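Supplementary Methods S3. Complex input for the shikimate-3-phosphate-bound model.
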Amino acid sequence: MASGEPMLLRRHLVLIGPMASGKSTLGSQFANRHGLAFADSDKRLVERHGPIPAIFTSLGEHAFRELEAREVAALLAEGKPPAVVSLGGGAILDTGTQQLLANCTVVFLDIDVDTVRPRIIKDTGRPLLAGDPVGRWTESLRQRRPVYERLADLVLDTRGKSQQQLLAELKNLLEERHEP
Ligand SMILES: Nc1ncnc2c1ncn2[C@@H]1O[C@H](COP(=O)(O)OP(=O)(O)O)[C@@H](O)[C@H]1O
Ligand SMILES: O=C(O)C1=C[C@@H](OP(=O)(O)O)[C@@H](O)[C@H](O)C1
Ligand SMILES: [Mg+2]
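Predicted complex, serialized as structure tokens:
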């Protein structure tokens, strides 16, 4: 049962942004609160192909991206009814995924290194952060930021905000845009 106002989406609501920006957490909570379906591309990928670090070790990042793009395409094809979809941070690197996102409402969860640091300094099972989480996270966002910004319909600044604040702000952003 939704704990907030029920909501109907016109298109999939897709959360993008860097690792540990809160896509999986906010997507799940927002969907739950508003009685919407929810899917997480990493969760799907793990269910079908096993843990992400094992995929990186056995197949490499390139193969991971191909599997990821396939899962994302399958998720976004499940169009009825539109759902909240949280992507892995690097899913937007795939050009096919970029094209599919043109038919979705895309929200970029922006964040800075100070907010994210406590979330990533211990091992979080993200292969791309291994060894030097803060340095690698910073470099990854430097490279990807232009893509996040280009694909985003809406930007949610998550810096220093609680889940309750983010849930309310996301709802307001959607209403301002008449989405849903
Ligand atoms: N608003 C928030 N404030 C504090 N911690 C958060 C917030 N959102 C998420 N987290 C924590 O940050 C970590 C990463 O969140 P997650 O949703 O997995 O991010 P992503 O899916 O973007 O990688 C988790 O431990 C989560 O509990
Ligand atoms: O940014 C990335 O390249 C990745 C982000 C991760 O998802 P989160 O963004 O949910 O951490 C996961 O897909 C994988 O470790 C690769
Ligand atoms: Mg996630």
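The pocket of shikimate-3-phosphate (ligand 2) is lined by residues 19-20, 23-24, 42, 52, 88-90, 126-128 (CB under 6 Å). Residues 13-176 form a domain with the Rossmann fold fold (CATH 3.40.50.300).
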